[in-house]
Amino acid sequence: MPETDPNSDVGLAVRFDEAAVRLGGRTIWSGVNLKVDHGQFVAVLGPNGVGKSTLIKVVLGILPVAKGRVVVLGRPPGDAGRDIGYLPQRRNFDPSMRVRGIDVVRLGSDGDRWGLPIPGGSSFFASRRVQRQRVDEVIDLVGAGSFAHRPIGEVSGGEQQRLLIAQALVRHPRLLLLDEPLDSLDLPNQASVAGLISEISKEHGITVLIVAHDVNPIVSYLDGVVYMAQGGAVSGLPDQVITSETLSELYATPIEVLRTSDGRLVVVGQPEAPSHHVDRHTGHPH
User: Cβ(49)–Cβ(16) under 8 Å?
Assistant: First the structure.
């Protein structure tokens, strides 16, 4: 392959160069370098409290960087809003909530508009028809057709997550940001949703940046990882980053990466609080 300019943003969906974020006078992380190619599936990993969600907010343009440079889809953060689909940390729907799943998905298309739409001739009706078609498309894409017309509070957690992913896909995003979409799901649903996200990324060329607490459900699908610690991060291929040597250097303390007999990765160590990494589903160090 011909040599490319290391400073070029061509072919990159997301780029961080020596980026730093400060909140309330405190540096959350600094010196973060990251390159995510178009169409890649990349995970942001690390213990609680190290700034994983903060990184997503920087990509969205919600938080500015105090230092360094960030480029998103060839533009400054915040300038690519309509090209980004975003699923925030998991919401809990009350079981009594009667809003249908299809209506939740439709919010991804027109949830930013106030009031009722005002008919305006043929263009209005054509627009609404295209919108309905797109909603039907993404519901089918995530395999939610059999439960999309049921109240959102009555469907399972995995089914709710599929509907929320459909909501994030309605506007044909080029970049999909998912903040802990597998949290609170049981293991079969984690595997199912992880496979769905990977399939969407590969078949539709959508770049995916996913915040995850447990790498195991997604590791086989990943093109890259960003592993964050208190104050910094390291990025690269999963096999290069999720190693005892790399994580020990990142945390400046002995960390051991083990693989269990069933193939699961276990990261063992004692990072400084609040960075102690515990699997939320087992309660054991992760």
Answer: no
pLDDT given at position 128: 79
Tell me the residue type at 272: E
242-248 contacts, C-beta under 8 A, 24 or more apart: 242/45, 242/215, 242/267
From CA 58, how far away is CA 76, in angstroms rounded? 10
Longest alpha-carbon distance in the chain:
67
User: For 22-28, which contacts have Cβ atoms below 8 Å and span 24 or more sequence positions?
Assistant: 22/66, 23/54, 23/63, 27/66, 27/231, 28/54
pLDDT digits (tens, 9 = 90+) for 272-286: 433 334 444 444 444
Beta strands 232-236 and 224-229 are: antiparallel
pLDDT of 6: 54
Which residues lie below 8 Å from residue 41, measured CB to CB, with a gap of 6+?
A: 197, 198, 201, 202, 207, 208, 210, 218, 221, 222, 223
Residue found by looking up tokens 């990324």 in the block:
201
Output the CA–CA distances (angstroms, integers) from residue 107 to 98, 154, 274, in the order listed.
15, 19, 36
Please list the ranges in the chain whose pLDDT falls under 50.
Answer: 1-4, 112-118, 121-122, 124, 272-286
Compute how many other C-beta atoms are within 10 angstroms of the C-beta atom of residue 30.
Answer: 17
Provide the 10 A C-beta neighbour count for residue 146.
10
**Separation CA 204–CA 35 (nearest Å):** 20
Other Cβ atoms less than 10 A from the Cβ of 118: the count is 6
Cα dihedral 10→11→16→18 (10° resolution): -60
